[in-house]
Amino acid sequence: MLLHDTVRSQAAQRPDAVALVSQRQTITYQQLEEWSNQLARLLLESGCRHGDRVGLLMPKSIQAIVAMVATLKAGCIYVPMDTASPPARQAKIVNSCEHACILAVNSASRLLAGISSELSNCNFRIGWLDSGPAAESNLDAAFIWDDLASMPAHPILCDTKPEDVAHILFTSGSTGVPKGVMITHANAAHFIQWANRYFGTLPTDRISCHPPLHFDLSTFDVWGTLNAGAELHLVSPELSLLPHKLAAFIRDSELTQWFSVPSVLKYMAQFDVVRQDDFPALKRLLWCGEALPVPTLMYFMRRLPAVSFTNLYGPTETTIASSYYTIPSCPPDEQSEIPIGLPCAGEQLHVLDEFLQPIPRGEIGDLYISGQGLSPGYWRDRQKTDSVFIQHADLGRIYKTGDLARLGPDRLVYLLGRADSQIKSRGFRIELGEIETALNSLGILRECAVVGVQTGGFEGTAICCAYAPTPGLQVTPADLRERLMQLVPPYMMPAYWLAFDALPLNPNGKIDKPRLRESFAAQSVA
Questions:
Q1: Which run of H or of E encompasses 241?
Q2: What residues contact residue 279 under an 8 Å CB cut-off, 6+ apart?
Q3: pTM of the entire predicted model
Q4: How confident is the model at residue 39 (pLDDT cuts 50, 70, 90)?
Q5: CATH pick for 5-185 out of 3.40.50.920, 3.40.50.980, 3.40.640.10, 3.40.50.800
Q6: pLDDT of the residue at 289
C-alpha cells in the first residue's frame, strides 16, 4: 500500500465526504484528490524528480496536508520542518537533505530567508502555498497556490514502491546535528492498517490532529484518518495553552478520537476542564511519547467512563508505535503501574542484557524492538544507523531504544526510563547532548552540563543547565537564553539554570551529573 493511494480511493468512493477541517475551512476528499494532483504536477514541472526531498515549511494547515499528499504523488519524499526552530538548525536539515523544493507560506518567509543566509548554496526552488512573500523579498517563487488552477486535476502515475521512503522526520541529535529518520510507505502503512483494525476506525469518525507535522504522532493522525475515509480535525497549537478552549474544541467538534502526548492531558486535568460524562461523541483516547501520570489517567477515566484509554509506545525509528495497552479499568490508586503492554501486530519487543541475550522475567534490561515498523535508518548517516540498528544472530534486525524495561509476571512489558541522556519533555524527544553542543559553541562557557529532572508539572521532565563561565566573563542565564534561542527550538530551552565556578566531578574525573540533578532538585525544580 502507498500512503497517497488512500486519497484517490476515498475520493472515488465518497467524493463529497469531508476530509479535512481547520477552524472554519473544510475540504472534501474530491477536493483533496484534485488539489494534490495539481500541486504534484507543479512540483514535477518545477524540476522535482523521483526520490527528491521536498521541505514543508508551514504551520499545520489544510495546505500542509495537501502538500504532504502531493509530494508523495510526485514520487518525492516530504520533510516536515518546524517553523518554531531557528534558521541555523533548519539550515542543517536543508543542507543534509539537499531539498529540491521547499513549500512555504508567507508567515514563514523571514525564517526561509534566514535559512537561505545560513547556506552557501541554495539550489532549492520555492513553492508558495499562498500568494508568497512581500514584493521586496529576495525569495523568488517557482509557483504560488493560484497556479494550481492551471494544472490538470486527474491522477498522476508514478513508479513509487512500498519500500521507498515516504518522509524524513528529524529528531534531536547528540552531536548538535539533527538526525533524519527515514520512514517508508510500508513502515507507515503497516501500523496504520493494524491500528485502524484494532481501534475499529470508521468513515464516520472525527479524529484529532494535535501534534505538529514534524512530530511522528501526526503520521497516524493524518494517514490513519485518510485511510479510513474519516474526518481529520486540525488542532491549532494555541489551544494547547488554553485548556478550557481545548476541552471546548473536543466537545464542539464532536471528536470520536483524541491522540496526543500526555503533557496536554496533564494540563487539562490540572485546570479541571473535563466535566462528568463530558465529550459524549468521544470513543477512544490515545497517548504516546512519554508516560501518562496515573493521577491524570484516573482523572479522565472517572469523568469519561464510556471512553476507552490506550497507551501506545514506540520511538520514531520504529514508526509511530510498537506496543499498546488498553486500560481495562480505572487504576485503584495513584501508585499503580501502567505497562506499555504487548507488541502491535508484526512487531516484537525484546528485553536483553548487555550481551544481547534475553533476561529472566522481572529483571531489568535494555529494550530492543524488531519487526515491520523498523526504519531503514538515518538519512545519509550509516555510522549512526549501524550503532542502533543491530543485526542479531537469532532475532534479526533489532533497534536499541535506549529505554530500560522489564517483562512482568503478566507477560506485559513495563518501561522504567532512559538508559542514556535522552529525555522526553512535553512529548518531544530531546538529546541533552545537542543542547550542550549548542551551549559550548557560544564561546563564553568554560564548561556546561544539561540534565533532566522529573517534575510533577506540565513538562514532565524539566531541562536544567549547569554552567561555568569562561574566566573573566560575567554570564547570566538571560545571556545564555538569548544566544541559545538562535540555535535550538523553544522546546529544547532549559527551564532552570545554576552557575558554578567549576562543575563538580565524580571520581572518574567526569562531570557528576547525578550530583547536579540533586542540586537542581534542592532548588525546588521538582
A1: none
A2: 247, 250, 251, 255, 304, 307
A3: 0.89
A4: very high
A5: 3.40.50.980
A6: 87
